[in-house]
Backbone:
């Protein structure tokens, strides 16, 4: 069964789609069978996939699943892939709750800003509700689009002081506000392909490694080379 990673946040504009497609691409390049489930009506991952196809770039499969069928569809996909990355919509509606109820790990990005920290608290509340139904569920919080401003330092400190449950980890990895992420997306590529020696690529690799580590025992089921074995 696949490792299911849901990228969720109450607030829009925190970079869920960018994190989703770059995480999936990094896993794909490491030899895993990966599918991105685009549950966001904005369809950013779907647009990226079209650009990749037009440019004949090899990329993870992207499928659009929205609404009440998400939970059932994720269960079906889990039989055929090593990893599923769910790009959930902003607002914690049906899709976000369904993805949490099916996921092994919930990734909760937050960007520099007071409103983002407040929105994270609401996301954590919904995560706690899902965990009551699925005790094995785990979560991670990642600071995304960080820069060198005082605001970023303030948010970093606020996150460090946030009382997270023992099943939610604040990742040591921080994703910077790098131009390469946007350029890679417009090219239909992941940043690890577009600019493999860049800080953005290094941060993506570190983020992917941290996500797999946070997934714990389930990580052993996501094996390298599976994509070439079938």
Residues:
């Amino acid at each position: 069964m696949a490792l299911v990673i849901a990228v969720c946040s109450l607030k829009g504009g925190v970079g869920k789609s960018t994190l989703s497609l770059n995480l999936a691409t990094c896993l794909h390049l490491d030899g895993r069978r990966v599918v991105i489930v685009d549950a966001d009506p904005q369809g950013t991952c779907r647009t990226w996939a079209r650009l990749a196809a037009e440019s004949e770039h090899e990329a993870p499969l992207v499928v659009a699943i929205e609404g009440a069928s998400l939970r059932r569809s994720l269960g079906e996909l889990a039989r055929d892939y090593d990893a599923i990355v769910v790009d959930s919509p902003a607002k914690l509606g049906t899709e976000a709750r369904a993805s949490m109820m099916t996921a092994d790990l919930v990734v909760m990005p937050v960007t520099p800003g007071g409103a983002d920290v407040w929105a994270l608290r609401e996301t954590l509340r919904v995560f706690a509700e899902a965990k009551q139904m699925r005790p094995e569920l785990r979560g991670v919080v990642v600071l995304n689009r960080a820069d060198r401003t005082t605001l970023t330092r303030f948010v970093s400190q606020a996150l460090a002081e946030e009382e997270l449950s023992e099943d939610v980890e604040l990742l040591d990895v921080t994703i910077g506000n790098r131009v390469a992420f946007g350029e890679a997306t417009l090219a239909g590529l992941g940043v690890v392909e577009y600019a493999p020696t860049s800080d953005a690529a290094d941060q993506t690799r570190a983020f992917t490694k941290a996500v797999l580590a946070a997934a714990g025992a389930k990580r052993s089921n996501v094996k390298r080379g599976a994509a070439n074995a079938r």
Remarks:
- Residues 217-221, 224-230 have pLDDT under 50 and may be disordered.
- The CA atoms of residues 141 and 170 lie 5 Å apart.
- The longest strand covers residues 138-146.
